[in-house]
Amino acid sequence: MAIDGIVLRQITKQLVTLLPAKINKIQQLSDTEILMQLRTHEGTKKLLISTHSVYNRINITELQYTTLDAPGNFVMLLRKQLDGGIIRKLEQEGLDRILHLEIEARDELGDIHHKHLYFECMGKYANLVFVGDDGKIIDALKRIPPFENNKRTIHPGACYVLPNPHLYKADPFHCDHIDPQISLTKQLHGFSPLLSDEVQYRIHHGETLLDIMRQLDTSEDIYISDLATKMAFHILPLTHLSSTWRSYPLMKGLDILYHEKEEKVRIKQQTGDLYKVVKQELHRNQSKLPKLQESMSEALDCEKYREYGDLLFAYMGSISREPLVTLPSFYDESMVSIPLDMRFDIKQNANKFYQKYHKAKRAQEYLQEQIVLCKKEIHYFEAMQIQLEQASIADAAEIREELIRQRYMKENKGRQRKKKQADHPHYECFRFGENKVYVGKNNLQNDYVTWKLARKEDLWLHVKDLHGAHVIISGPEPDETLLRDAAMLAAWYSGGRHSSSVPVNYCPIKQLKKIPKTKGSFVSMNHYKTIYIDPDPAHIQYLFDFARCS
Question: Under DSSP, is residue 550 helix (H, G, I), strand (E, B) or coil?
Answer without folding.
Answer: coil
